[in-house]
Design a protein that fits this description.
about 110 residues; alpha/beta; globular; Oxidized Rhodanese, domain 1
C-alpha cells in the first residue's frame, strides 16, 4: 500500500467520544488548543509528534485533526510511515464546529475554533 495514502474521514464518520481504543489526536498549536478543542481529544502539536510517538497506542483507532485538515494530513502520513493506521479528519476542527459538535476549553467552558 502507498504510504502516502491515508484514509480520510468526513466529520459525520468521526466518533463523538474517545477512550483508550479510539483516539482523536489534535495536532494544532498550543494557542489553538487553548481557545477550544473537542472533548476527550489528545493534544500533541504537530512539531512534537515525533518525540512523543510512544504516547500513541498503535492498536488504537487513531483520528488526526487540525484546523482545516492540512497539518493533520501531514502528521497522518508521518504516522502511517511509522506503522500506524491513522485516519485524517477532512475539514478539521472547522468542520467539527460547523457540524454542531461541542468545543471546550481545558477549564470545561465553551471554546471557539
Amino acid at each position: 500500500m502507498d504510504q502516502g495514502a491515508v484514509r480520510q474521514a468526513d466529520i459525520a464518520d468521526v466518533p463523538t467520544s474517545f477512550d483508550a481504543s479510539v483516539v482523536l489526536l489534535d495536532v494544532r498549536e498550543h494557542d489553538e488548543w487553548e481557545r477550544g478543542h473537542a472533548p476527550g481529544a489528545r493534544h500533541i502539536p504537530m512539531g512534537e509528534v515525533p518525540a512523543r510517538l510512544t504516547e500513541l497506542d498503535p492498536d488504537a483507532q487513531l483520528f488526526v485533526i487540525c484546523h482545516l485538515g492540512g497539518r493533520s494530513q501531514r502528521v497522518a502520513q508521518y504516522l502511517a510511515a511509522q506503522g500506524y493506521a491513522p485516519i485524517n479528519v477532512s475539514g478539521g476542527m472547522e468542520a467539527w464546529a460547523q457540524a454542531g459538535r461541542p468545543v471546550v476549553t481545558d477549564g470545561g467552558g465553551a471554546g471557539i475554533v
